[in-house]
Design a protein that fits this description.
The structure is a homodimer. The first copy, chain A, is α/β, with parallel strands linked by helices and about 230 residues long. Chain A is globular and about 65 Å long. In chain A, the strands form three sheets. A seven-stranded mixed sheet of chain A has the order 7-8-6-5-9-10-11. In chain A, strands 1-2 form a two-stranded antiparallel ribbon. A two-stranded antiparallel ribbon of chain A has the order 3-4. In chain A, helix 1 runs antiparallel to helix 4 and helix 2 crosses helix 3. Chain A has three domains: about 80 residues, Winged helix-like DNA-binding domain superfamily/Winged helix DNA-binding domain (Arc Repressor Mutant, subunit A), CATH 1.10.10; about 110 residues, Rossmann fold (3-Layer(aba) Sandwich), CATH 3.40.50; about 25 residues. At the A-B interface, helix 1, helix 5, strand 10 and helix 9 of A face helix 1, helix 5, strand 11 and helix 9 of B. Chain A binds a DNA duplex (30 and 30 nucleotides) through strand 2 and helix 3.
Chain lengths: ~230, ~230
DNA sequence: CTCACTTTGTTTATCCTTTCACAAGCTCAT
DNA sequence: ATGAGCTTGTGAAAGGATAAACAAAGTGAG
């Protein structure tokens, strides 16, 4: 069992957390936006502001991997982008498999955020006979029965699970058997996996529920304050 | 600017992080699964195992809010579920607005994870005239032009942004103007917000990119090891 | 009733992440 | 060339989160 969120990696330089990596990916996206606007040089202050972190955080995150800036000047955007792409491993093309072409799955097939940057969903799997054999957004839908075969032939390493929760574990087992090394899991269950596979959970219900906690908390805080004020007056 | 991920809350008891809240939501889901299987009592060991945390972590997380277990016995599932629902604030019904009924948005409308537990998407907004006025999964699509009006009339507090990134900031501004207090953001941009609003980002591209980092890292580690072995033999 | 065995709740210690503070290095005006 | 004014990179301190350890409390067999 290997959860990404509590994973630490040690290089010759130092130990850093999975959180650092997630931030690098965020920096990268923001840098690309600056590049599109023809900005050439950027300081840690600016890039960190639009990424909602402190400048020190940004510099520290980079420092685990080398020195990419010029003192007194800042960072050359073009270079930093390609350095980050290389660090993250997305300078190569990654061929991704998708399991579950329901409403979420087909949304993912159309999602630009993946296709834009070297992350190509190459094939998809479903159990629905109406879908099998057809093309969705240019991607062929296979039967889950052929999952191992297709994935092994294509030598794929990354998969996305977008199935209903009840079958997610079964799918994960099949994927691991076929040699998949990383799973992006949208099904709201904690998958049991072996140590060879990295799991990253995208849990929308959890996110929404914790958001609600904070909104609710704020609300009751305000109500209590109001009551206190009333009792002062009374 | 108020990011959920780096938020800490202080009660009379102690300070805890947003991560604690996300874990509570996870425990809750797993507890519901146990309840469906007619389990009545559970120990911190069991519930923590299926949530991928340590038993101490689980007990610590609960301890911020009170004592819910019986020593020597464990936790009564039914009670713990309703306590957690109360803590998270999802014992009440929350009326959620959705902005952007594209492929992702309509997937969210159909997503069971929300509708199952007191989280109801009540209305949706889009700019596409072909969609406005129609019903998607029983939810009426309004024009974004009427956003403020509809949200204020309905007194809604939570919204989901599932638009393209370019318009996300504009939508967020409109939502805040209409009195929205929490935003679940699927658009891959860092939103600028005032301190009255909580933002929770669900960033699928970041997740996938950081997953790829770990898979890639593992791969190059193995290749290096193989090379070392070869040079030993040579 | 008593004692061995569980399991929770919490204090204490450890570890890790973030922030602070500053030295090192670059640029440009004079 | 030189010094003022930036900005980076990083050692050290501070702050939080996790883990270890243990006390408190319940159960059940004998």
């Amino acid at each position: 069992m290997r959860k990404l969120s509590q994973h630490t990696i040690c290089t010759k330089k130092k130990c850093f957390s999975a959180e650092t990596i997630r931030r690098l990916s965020l920096y990268l996206r923001n840098l690309r936006r600056f590049k599109e606007n023809n900005v050439k040089i950027i300081s840690s202050g600016e890039i960190s502001k639009c990424s909602n972190v402190s400048p020190e955080q940004f510099r520290r995150d980079l420092s685990y991997f080398g020195e990419f800036g010029k003192r007194g000047v800042g960072y050359e955007i073009e270079r930093l982008i390609s350095e980050l792409e290389s660090i993250l491993g997305i300078d190569k093309e990654w061929r991704v498999a998708l399991v579950g072409v329901g409403s979420l799955g087909s949304a993912l097939l159309r999602f630009e955020g993946f296709s834009k940057f070297h992350l190509k969903i190459i094939c998809a799997f479903d159990i629905d006979n109406n879908k099998i054999g057809k093309n969705f957004s240019g991607v062929k839908i296979h039967s889950v029965e052929n999952l191992a075969e297709v994935i092994k032939t294509d030598n794929m390493e990354i998969a996305i699970i977008a199935t209903l929760p009840d079958v997610a574990q079964d799918v994960a087992d099949k994927l691991m058997g076929a040699g998949i090394k990383g799973i992006l899991n949208f099904a709201p269950v904690a998958l049991r996996t072996n140590d060879d596979v990295f799991i990253s959970d995208v849990d929308m219900a959890c996110e929404l529920e914790s958001l609600i906690f904070f909104v609710d908390q704020r609300k009751t805080d305000k109500e209590e304050e109001k009551e206190r004020n009333l009792s002062f007056e009374g």
